[in-house]
């Protein structure tokens, strides 16, 4: 049959839930060679391994839907046993079922359907980097994103508290330098600072980013504290100190996880990272995050539009009578991928001429800010897609 893909003779679909999994194996001619249920434990895993070993076909492709976390252990087990295993977006299975001409009694998540989907579409899903490693990188990337979000929230709370206890400080220096944060741990408010000894305060400080001398800056701080309109609140002082201690801990954690993320990403995708960072304002962290959330390999996408759709940055189509148009973006895809594309786009708009010119052009055409950024994001993804497919850098492409 024309739907049968080359390279594999058998296809095994696995439908996973918390406590058990259902599996079905078929040949290229859709002959079923096993179907059973098993528990999500060592006994169930060994049962699956035994059935896979007994199959007479020479090459197997195994697929399972990506779940919140239930799939991870079975996926890792099969990969460690040397099997070809891929994760499948549940939306792909759902759309596959909808496209079938004949109705089926099986649920869209049924292992039989997953096996049939593999048989028809498996060649477009094979990736060149081990998905178990990509899964680890994705965990690191999303943990890093979570830390950044926590730090942002903490900084907003610290600024809110200081606006009550020492509002003048923000106008004198950057609050979130290590020196000022450590100072605030000792003196968390104007009230606590105004009685400080000048010599001790001078020794505590380092020269600030403006290059002021420590003694001069210490004198200015004491003067501001003694004339401050800040409220004396021991409770707020305590909360502020705890928030600062947590922020400093998160900064260390962020540095540690970022180092591991970049090192592991470069070991797996160094050439791709170098291609992306040839766009000067895209750094190692952004490049690695984009590639990880994309799934590591550009070869799995037929066109740049597939990446845009995966990120949920494609406009939703709406109909009203005979009129058809496009509305807001769908936001149905990977929100982490969508977030990093948006951040990359705002950077290239600021600092890269070709994207800045395009953004301004769309603004002059009447697009509001967010829509103009979205249009520029589409252009950025088209450029990135071409770079990765053609294995060329941004500078080379710009001069071609």
Describe the structure.
- This protein is an alpha/beta fold and 400 residues long.
- It folds into 3 domains: 10-126, Nucleotidyltransferase, domain 5; 141-254, Orthogonal Bundle (Helix Hairpins), CATH 1.10.287; 301-399, no CATH class.
- Helices cover 57% and strands 12% of the residues.
- The chain has 16 helices and 7 strands.
- Strands 3-2-1-4-5 form a 5-stranded mixed β-sheet.
- The two termini are 43 Å apart.
- The model is unreliable at 1-6, 207-211, 316-327 and 396-400 (pLDDT under 50).
Largest sheet geometry: 5 strands, mixed
Q: Which CATH architecture of the largest domain is right?
A: 2-Layer Sandwich
Give the SSE order as H and E letters: EEEHEHEHHHHHHHHHHEEHHHH
**How many helical stretches?**
16
Q: How much helix, percentage-wise, in residues?
A: 55-70%
Name given to the CATH homologous superfamily of the largest domain: ATPase, nucleotide binding domain
Residue stretches low in confidence (pLDDT < 50, at least 5 long) are: 1-6, 207-211, 316-327, 396-400
The strand order across the widest sheet is: 3-2-1-4-5
Mean pLDDT across the residues is: 85
Helix/strand/pairing class, anyone?
Answer: alpha/beta
* Assigned CATH class of the largest domain: Alpha Beta
- The proportion of residues in beta strands is 5-15%
Rg, Å, rounded: 28 Å
- Please tell me what the overall shape is: elongated
Number of domains: 3
CATH names the topology of the largest domain as Nucleotidyltransferase, domain 5
């Amino acid at each position: 049959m024309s739907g049968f893909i080359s390279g594999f003779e058998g296809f095994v679909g696995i439908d996973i839930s918390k406590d058990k999994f259902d599996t079905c194996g078929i040949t290229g001619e859709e002959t079923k060679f096993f179907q059973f249920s098993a528990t999500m434990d060592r006994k169930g895993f060994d049962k699956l391994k035994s059935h896979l070993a007994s199959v007479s076909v020479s090459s197997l492709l195994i697929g399972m839907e990506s779940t919140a976390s239930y799939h991870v252990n079975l996926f890792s087990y099969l990969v460690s046993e040397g099997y070809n295993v891929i994760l499948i977006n549940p939306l792909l299975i759902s759309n596959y079922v909808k496209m079938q001409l004949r109705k089926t009694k099986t649920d869209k998540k049924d292992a039989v359907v997953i096996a049939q989907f593999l048989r028809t579409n498996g060649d477009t899903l094979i990736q060149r980097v081990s998905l178990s490693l990509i899964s680890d990188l994705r965990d690191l990337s999303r943990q890093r994103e979570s830390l950044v979000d926590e730090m942002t929230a903490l900084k907003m709370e610290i600024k809110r508290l200081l606006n009550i206890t020492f509002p003048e400080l923000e106008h004198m220096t950057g609050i979130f330098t290590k020196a000022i944060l450590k100072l605030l741990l000792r003196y968390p408010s104007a009230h606590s600072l105004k009685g400080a000894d000048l010599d001790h305060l001078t020794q505590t400080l380092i020269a600030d980013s403006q290059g002021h001398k420590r003694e001069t800056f210490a004198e200015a701080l004491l003067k501001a504290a003694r004339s401050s309109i800040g409220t004396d609140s021991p409770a707020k002082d305590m909360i502020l100190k705890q928030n600062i201690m947590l922020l400093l801990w998160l900064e260390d954690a962020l540095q540690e996880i970022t180092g591991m993320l970049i090192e592991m990403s470069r070991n797996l995708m160094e050439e791709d990272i170098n291609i992306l960072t040839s766009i000067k304002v895209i750094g190692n962290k952004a490049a690695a995050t984009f590639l990880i959330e994309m799934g590591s390999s550009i070869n799995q996408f037929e066109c740049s539009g597939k990446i845009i759709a995966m990120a949920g940055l494609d406009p939703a189509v709406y109909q009203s009578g005979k009129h058809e148009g496009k509305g807001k973006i769908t936001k149905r895809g990977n929100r982490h991928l969508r977030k990093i594309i948006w951040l990359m786009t705002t950077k290239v708009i600021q600092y890269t001429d070709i994207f800045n010119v395009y953004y301004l052009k769309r603004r002059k055409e009447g697009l509001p800010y967010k829509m103009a950024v979205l249009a520029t994001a589409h252009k950025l993804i088209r450029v990135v897609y071409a770079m990765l497919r053609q294995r060329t850098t941004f500078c080379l492409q710009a001069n071609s």
